[in-house]
Specification:
The protein is of the alpha/beta class. It has a domain of about 140 residues: Nucleotidyltransferase, domain 5. Helices cover about 35% and strands about 20% of the residues. The chain contains seven helices and six strands, in the order αββββααβαβααα. Strands 1, 2, 3, 4, 5 and 6 form a six-stranded mixed beta sheet that branches. β5, α4 and β6 form a beta-alpha-beta unit. The protein starts with a helix and ends in a 22-residue tail after the last helix. The C terminus is likely disordered.
């Protein structure tokens, strides 16, 4: 089975964001990282190449002091080498890289994987609207794969660090709350769960006729 067959032509992509608060409409998006999940010839899932960016707060963005203290991010630190989220910068670069992978895998769209995935998707969708990037966005607007749910099913754990420990994956709390690090660990966790707990036998997949109307989740 190929990757496009396993997920109905969706390319699973792990995404993590670091933000300056919890409100996707008003609070700044500060970091974003993406890792596509791939499938080798032996049927083993593995993380692809990471794409990430440090992002400048958009004009008028709210910066919650407690959120910045929690993540340890200083938005004004020049060493971050942050780039603007608008125009052809941060988001467009990430989207272009993901589209190349999607096309190589013959998938029609990306689906976001995250630990509390709807949080990450909300900030991603808000940034897409701010930057007028809807036509470049490869992600499904509302469907997600959530590793919180998968971890609860597989290990009885919902915290990323604890789920990784249960899966035998190293997790350094000092590196947590970096979008790239958390994305890498979430990708390892997702692959471990799928490789250890296959849920969908190959025989169950059937290709949908091209003329058939799309389901509401597509």
């Amino acid at each position: 089975m190929t990757l496009k067959e396993r997920f109905r032509k969706f390319l699973p992509v792990v995404v993590d964001v670091e933000t300056a608060g919890f409100n996707a409409q008003t609070d700044a998006l500060l970091e974003i990282a993406c890792i596509p999940i791939l499938l080798n010839e032996q049927g083993v899932f593995y993380p692809g190449e990471a794409l990430n960016a440090h992002i400048e707060p958009f004009e008028g963005a709210n910066l919650e002091p407690r959120a910045l203290e929690f993540t340890g991010i200083d938005p004004n630190n020049p060493l971050r080498k942050a780039i603007a989220e608008d125009e052809k910068t941060a988001l467009r670069r990430l989207f272009k890289g993901l589209k190349e992978v999607r096309r190589a895998e013959e998938c029609r769209q990306c689906v976001l994987i995250g630990h509390n995935a709807h949080f990450d998707l909300a900030f991603l969708n808000a940034a897409v609207l701010r930057t007028n990037s809807k036509n470049h966005n490869p992600f499904h607007q509302f469907s997600v794969f959530d590793t919180v749910t998968l971890s609860a099913l597989a290990f009885g754990q919902t915290v990323l660090a604890r789920a990784c420990k249960a899966a035998g994956i190293d997790f350094d709390g000092k590196d947590a709350h970096s979008a790239l690090y958390d994305t890498q660990k979430t990708a390892e966790l997702f692959c471990h769960i799928l490789n250890s707990y296959p849920m969908l036998p190959n025989a169950l997949y059937t290709e949908e006729p091209e003329s058939e109307p799309k389901d509401n989740d597509e």
